[in-house]
Amino acid sequence: MADHAHTRDGARALRDFFASRDAADLKRASAAVSDHFHLTLGRDIDWTGAEYDFNRLFVGPMAVPAPPFASAYQTEPALMGEPTLAVRDAYRALGLMVPDQGQTPDDHLAFELDLAAAMPDPEEGAGGDAVTAEVREWLLGEHLPGWVPAFVEAVKAQPDVSAPVRMAVDALENWLEATRPAAGAGQA
């Protein structure tokens, strides 16, 4: 499992990427992902085209091929389903609230990465308490690994994915693998 700073900073960079709203956000967030994960991003990026690709894959307005919501990858997909409430409960367990609650389902990838970034260091203060350890084990060891690989696969199955989106998805895949707790790590 990666150290806490790597987990937190990687989650922040990826959160900002998947929360992007326009080409300027994507450009800024892509630079942070490239920096943190030491992934090369070309210089001749068409950021307007990347924004179009991002919206085509993750936002809409048409049906998207790779929805960034955990609920979409359940056996019976349902928006605002059980994963949404589970993420809301995890935020509450840490005394936090989903940013923008009620506007976007709580199980959006950016919110889940925000939760990972918000967790205190397990080696310091409240980061070692039982509730935080339980949320960490659930989020990094069970919940995210339960749907993010299908999300990554859905993106990679699409033709002509832009370089920034490909880079972010590769970084997400690597981050998830590096942050996954060892089996039984949260048990005393």
From TrEMBL:
- Pfam families named among the record's database cross-references: Nitrate_red_del (PF02613)
- Superkingdom: Bacteria
Q: Which keywords does the record carry?
A: Chaperone
The stretch of residues making up the signal peptide is: none
Fetch the PANTHER family from UniProt.
Answer: CHAPERONE PROTEIN YCDY (PTHR34227)
Can you name this protein? Answer: Molecular chaperone TorD family protein
Originating organism: Pseudodesulfovibrio methanolicus
